[in-house]
Design brief:
Blueprint: E1 14-20, E2 36-44, E3 49-52, H1 58-61, H2 74-90, E4 97-101, E5 118-122, H3 126-134, E6 139-140, H4 146-149, E7 159-165, H5 174-184, E8 185-196, H6 198-204, E9 216-217, H7 220-228, E10 232-240, E11 246-253, H8 261-272, H9 278-304, E12 309-312, H10 316-324, E13 335-336, E14 354-355, H11 357-362, E15 367-370, H12 376-382, H13 384-389, E16 391-393
Parallel strand pairs: 4-5, 4-7, 5-6, 7-8, 12-13, 12-15, 13-14, 15-16
Antiparallel strand pairs: 1-2, 2-3, 3-9, 8-11, 10-11
The structure holds S-adenosyl-L-homocysteine and thymidine-5'-phosphate (TMP).
């Protein structure tokens, strides 16, 4: 495989086998034409970058049927309100132009005053972009890439802040992304984005963070090294609790701001924990293999006891667990979810029926596989009734 930044050859260190599109919830009639790719991961030593080898093309994942809506979690709606407040508080200059990459249904941008700030969302998935537009947010229904960005001639070097959340790791051509940032960002502008954190995935062995959309799993070390190559500079990294452990990165043009002292501490910690080198990847691989064995044993034990098992929340992450561990309806009767676009369909690859939350509440299982473990507080609060009958479990400790 070839590193997507350095173009150097790297050897994949692990394969998760054949994977379908993680958010490709499917109807029965389409089972036969389902798309699969080989999900292998590699690590570029030079820039400490954890990355997928093969992956589907962006338009296969992000199109008019994208079934993920930021607003499906109250916790994330609250998080984005706080994120916007943080941006407003930390950007001491006159904020005139702000662009969000991967603005989805507008959950983040709606927190800003559009009368005072020129707000633009870039969102290629048509269905979610339409929701954002209906909320009154200027939304460009296109991929953020240099070709599309350079059409915004009047905004060249005028954008004070470019933000993103859980979207930069979705963009395979990072060099092209950075070219777009370079075109738009003001001389003293900031590029702020947060993404699932490699260090948290290693600690928890939450390998389900790896799926087609997550082409990269970033760390502060990798982000620093990548942006260094393009005349940009990482000046801050702030850990976040979202998605089981994320990191917010702040980037500027080289030399335009002073890096925070706290950043040094994070980089040092990553070195100490080998997050900046292949050693941690090899440990992670072992952890995944053990986790897979234990999960299958657990499910077999449940079956021996004649337990009814259901899945809770048809997350994109669950696609990796189910396909890597080969878990289908032989173990799990159904997966319940709140998203109407997923209900009535089947899980990608393993074809477990997706049902409503009402179905879950009417057919409480003995054991529920919590696929949305990152939203556990929110879910435990609403599902107190289940707790009286059954028990939660997951492939990681919850
Ligand atoms: N920011 C939201 C959505 C994350 S899902 C949140 O954190 O909840 C990732 C989003 O990025 C999707 O809505 C997808 O359509 C969008 N996306 C993927 N590639 C993109 C690109 N090149 N430019 C802009 N958005 C992109
Ligand atoms: P994710 O943010 O981990 O990808 O999870 C989002 C999915 O989880 C989405 O399909 C909606 C579903 N979900 C529920 O079904 N119930 C809930 O209470 C929450 C928070 C999410």
């Amino acid at each position: 495989m070839i590193c997507k930044i350095t173009n150097k050859k790297i050897k994949p260190f692990m394969s998760f086998g054949k994977m379908p599109i993680a958010n490709g919830f499917i109807t029965k009639k389409d089972f036969k034409k389902e798309f699969f790719f080989k999900m292998e991961v590699g690590f570029s030593k030079k820039i400490s970058l954890f990355q997928l080898n093969e992956h589907p093309k962006p338009h296969q994942m992000f199109n008019k049927n994208y079934p993920f809506f930021t607003s499906s979690s109250k916790g994330m709606v609250n998080h984005f309100k706080k994120y916007s407040e943080w941006v407003k508080k930390n950007y001491k200059k006159d904020l005139k132009n702000l662009i969000e990459i991967g603005s989805n249904d507008g959950t983040f941008l709606k927190n800003f005053n559009k009368k005072k700030i020129n707000l633009i969302g870039f969102e290629p998935s048509k269905n979610v972009a339409q929701i954002s537009s209906k909320r009154g947010i200027k939304t460009i229904n296109k991929f953020f890439n240099y070709k599309n960005v350079k059409k915004l001639k009047n905004l060249k070097r005028k954008i004070n802040i470019i933000t993103a959340a859980n979207a930069i790791c979705h963009i395979p051509n990072l060099k092209d992304l950075i070219r777009g940032i370079d075109f738009l960002l003001a001389d003293d502008g900031l590029f702020i984005f947060e993404e699932p954190y490699l260090g948290s995935m290693f600690t928890k062995a939450s390998y389900d963070q790896i799926y087609d959309e997550h082409i990269f799993m970033f760390s502060a070390s990798s982000i620093k090294k990548i942006f260094d190559l393009f005349n940009f500079e990482l000046i801050n990294a702030i850990p976040q609790k979202t998605h089981g452990g994320s990191m917010r990165y702040v980037i500027c043009r080289k030399g335009s701001y002073k890096p925070k002292i706290s950043l040094k501490k994070i980089l040092r910690k990553e070195k100490k924990k080998n997050i900046d080198n292949i050693k941690s990847c090899l440990q992670f691989k072992k952890k995944c293999e053990i986790s897979k064995k234990k999960l299958i044993q657990k499910l077999e034990n449940f079956k021996k006891k004649n337990y009814k098992i259901a899945g809770y929340a048809a997350t994109s992450k669950s696609t990796t667990i189910l396909n890597y561990c080969n878990i289908g309806t032989d173990f799990i009767d159904f997966i319940s979810d709140t998203t109407k676009e997923k209900i009535g369909k089947f899980s990608p690859g393993m074809h477990i029926p997706i049902v409503s939350m009402k179905h879950f509440q009417k057919n409480l299982p003995d054991r529920a596989f919590l696929f949305a473990w990152n939203h556990k507080n929110e879910i435990f609060k609403k599902e107190k009734k289940f707790k009286k009958k059954g028990k939660w479990f997951a492939h990681i400790s919850i």
